[in-house]
Amino acid sequence: MTMALWASTALVLSCGAASAQSVPDPTQQEILVKTTILTFNDANLTGDYAVLHAKLAKPFRDQFSPDKLKDVFKSFSDQQVDLAGIVVKPIVPTGKAQIDKDGVLVLSGYFDTTPSRVSYQLKFIQSDLEWKAVGIHVDVDPAKK
């Protein structure tokens, strides 16, 4: 049985045309993925979304308060799934990292964890001079053989 934990929300951004930003190198991508998912994990396990909120892109922070994030991710938080095991696993990209026409960096892949596989699609924009999340989608599914 698949347990999908959808943890994203629609966010309309007016990012404008893609800027001259380049796709981060693989090491930077791994740092972005792991820090985003681990911060998300901490928020879900503790019920305190202030740090996650602070690390999101400004347009996202302006639209969603920590309390709103808590509401949005309630079903994920209620299941108390601990994603900390990803820290020792390499990311396995499922698509090429790319910056779309709106300047959004899209990173997707999974961690080969057991007993469940952690899959993700994360979206980032340049905010406060660094890549910051504007979309978090995490699935926890039974490990694939």
Largest sheet: 5 strands, antiparallel
Order of helices and strands: HHHHHEEEEE
Regions with little confidence, pLDDT below 50 for 5+ residues: 1-19
**Helical element count?**
5
How many domain modules?
1
Helix content: 25-40%
Please explain how this structure is put together.
This protein has one domain (26-142): Nuclear Transport Factor 2, Chain: A, CATH 3.10.450.630. The chain has 5 helices and 5 strands, in the order H-H-H-H-H-E-E-E-E-E. It has helices at residues 26-46, 50-55, 58-63, 66-72, 74-78; strands at residues 92-93, 98-99, 105-111, 116-127, 130-142. Strands 1, 2, 3, 4 and 5 form a 5-stranded antiparallel beta sheet that branches. It is globular, with a radius of gyration of 15 Å. The model is unreliable at 1-19 (pLDDT under 50).
Sum this structure up briefly.
The protein is an alpha+beta fold and 145 residues long.
Keywords:
single chain; 145 residues; alpha+beta; Nuclear Transport Factor 2, Chain: A; five-stranded antiparallel sheet; 5 helices; 31% helix; globular; disordered N terminus
Note the topology.
Blueprint: H1 26-46, H2 50-55, H3 58-63, H4 66-72, H5 74-78, E1 92-93, E2 98-99, E3 105-111, E4 116-127, E5 130-142
Antiparallel strand pairs: 1-3, 2-3, 3-4, 4-5
